[in-house]
Amino acid sequence: MQEAHPARRRGRLLAAAAAATVAVAFIVTLGATANAATLFSDDFNDGNANGWSTSGGTWAVSSGAYTQSGASAGAKSLAGTASWSTVTVSAKVRPTTFGSSGSRGIGVAARAQSTSNFYALVLTSTAVQLRKGATTTLASAPFTATTGTTYTLSLSATGSALSGSVNGVQVVAASDGSYATGRAGLVAGYTAGSFDDVVVTDAAGPSQPSPSVSVPPSRSPSASPSTSTGPPQPGTVIGWAAQAGGTSGGAGGPTVTVSTWADLRTQAQAAGARTILVNGMLSGSGTVEISANKTIRGVGSGSGVSGTTLNIEDMQPANVIIQNLNIRGVLGTDAIQIENATHIWIDHNTMSSTIEDDPDVYDGMIDITHAGDYVTVSWNVVRAHWKTSLVGHSDGNAGEDVGHLRVTYHHNWFDQTFERSPRVRFGETVHVYNNYYSNINHNADSYAVASTMNAGVLVEANVFENVQQACWSASGYADSDPGRLVARDNSLTNSGPCETNGSVAAPPYAYTAQSAGTVKASVTAGAGAGKL
């Protein structure tokens, strides 16, 4: 999407950076709203459980904790107000005995409308689960819960987005709109245990966030213990493109191989599902319009397209996958253009051009505009490009874009780019995690990530090396208003700070971020065409 190069506001931006450097410290948190109101709390130090109503089990206050001593039935205890909607429910939970029932588990509940209608985050002996009611599992992650050990559980409900954290680390997430309001609760299904320090807030996001790290703004917080050491398996769509029905591309349709640009355009425009294998470098000067339910995948490591725009437009869902291509030399327009289209996965491509003194020689490499939605950009290499990835068409497009532009960027390598990796307007949540940014220092205005126009961007466990400015948010960018940006667990080397501002809703999907210390090796080894 062509956009006039922004007027430089060097004085204001440098002033903002200077102001950041004199701050004593900043606090990195995930999803928690500043000054969230406490709706309810109970530490049971008064020796009673006044305000709690129980169903099943054997409940008592003992030694300053609320215990449930039976392991042969489902047990619940509820408190609070039935009208609570946006909440985070947290408690210290200590299992003592796991029963044999398949619905066993101990944890916290939110939006409890009755003893059978609620959302719950529970620990079993082998997993942490996000449940609807006692037995329907919405999301699950492997976890070893040891009896006699205390865990801090937090369950957040914001609209239809649900997320669960253990010891401050988000481990599960899901989307479900069955219960809009309800009370808070404690659940112990066929599990004996105890509960303490129950807190309910009106925050959207964990009220017990990943341990807040107070560090000088010139440094990055160290990697969170929540992160894994290895990357996800290639060939699996993760993030927003996997939500709301997912993205399968041409699965179920025929597979065709094309070796000319004209054949590629014909097959891409054809109706129906199909997988299009691109054999060789195909050069063309026009636009390839991609119709719904297509996978376009390069053959080997040396196939792709040059000089052409791949356009995905006006489809809900588009259900398009672009994978394993070399994309080069697209002048004056976007290389991949996504407009008013949903469910798109851009994966394992190598995209390159040449930095020019005139920024209008090249436009966007991957631009997502006009209410584009449910997009994942993963394992790509973008090198020597000016305008990398714009999310949101213009400052005046709120009416179309608010509530859309949900994009995940993970395990991409942005090398010698100038800006927009990504630049976001209005979208929330745009999730930028486990990417490697290198040598983004073409001049004093170079930057990696910008959140503007009240966008919500989560920048998590990325590596920034030799980057002029890692992130802009509170200062806005160019003529755009500020956005919101939460940064956690990033690594910065010889780089300007990642400016944070406000709070951001947690992504509603399950994912595991690598620790920042392992990201560079994983991305440089696995990103780009020929690595699938």
Features of this protein?
single chain, 532 residues, mainly beta, Pectate Lyase C-like, Jelly Rolls, 2 domains, 13-stranded parallel beta sheet, nine-stranded parallel beta sheet, 4 helices, 43 strands, 40% strand, disordered N terminus
How would you describe this structure to a colleague?
- There is one protein chain.
- With 532 residues, the protein is mainly β.
- It folds into 2 domains: 10-30 and 213-228 and 297-526, 3 Solenoid (Pectate Lyase C-like), CATH 2.160.20.10; 38-201, Sandwich (Jelly Rolls), CATH 2.60.120.
- It is 7% helix and 40% strand.
- It is built from 4 helices and 43 strands.
- A hairpin with a 2-residue loop joins strand 4 and strand 5 (65-68).
- The radius of gyration is 24 Å and the shape is elongated.
- It starts with 9 loop residues before the first helix and ends in a 6-residue tail after the last helix.
- Residues 2-35 and 205-227 have low confidence and may be disordered.
Instruction: Please state the overall shape, judged from the principal axes of the Cα atoms.
Output: elongated
The average pLDDT value, as a whole number, equals 84
The helix/strand class is mainly beta
- Enumerate how many helices there are, as a single number: 4
In total, the number of domains comes to 2
- Strand percentage: 35-45%
Largest sheet: 13 strands, parallel
How many E strands?
Answer: 43
End-to-end Cα distance: 28 Å
Architecture per CATH nomenclature, i.e. the level-2 architecture of the largest domain: 3 Solenoid
Helix proportion: under 10%
Identify the CATH homologous superfamily of the largest domain: Single-stranded right-handed beta-helix, Pectin lyase-like
CATH hierarchy class name of the largest domain: Mainly Beta
